Amino acid sequence: MNHFTTLTEAMEDLRNRGYTHEFGPKHDFLEEKSTETKLKGEEFNVDEFHRFEGTSDPGDEMTLYAITAANGMKGVFVSAQGTYANEVSPELMAKFNVSDRAEVNTDGAVKPIDTISADQ
After folding, report:
1. Stretch 86-102: mean pLDDT, rounded?
2. What are phi and psi of 67, to 5 degrees?
3. Structurally, how many domains does the chain consist of?
4. Domain that holds residue 23
5. What is the DSSP code string of 56-104?
């Protein structure tokens, strides 16, 4: 899997792979923006995610999730750091905690910066 440098690049790649719907959070469900399809946490799976951090402001952190609904709908959910803190139920946000799920592709996680030694 590619490690993307921008959110736009990752979204375009996912769109080309069939993740064409955009989801936004409503208290305890995700809603597809154009069709108003509502998905509870048990009605979709997180397939992969990609994290992006701003170079100068940690508040620029964004996470892009690729999800597949039980009805076959595939799309993305973009979560900005802290944006939905008061809008989303803890149960829904728990669905996006993918650190302990082997089936989720985590190659898009933030990678540590390799340090270069002074003598190179």
Report:
1. 71
2. -125, 150
3. 1
4. 7-99
5. S-GGG-EEEEEEEETTS-EEEEEEETTTTTTTS-HHHHHTT--TT-TTS
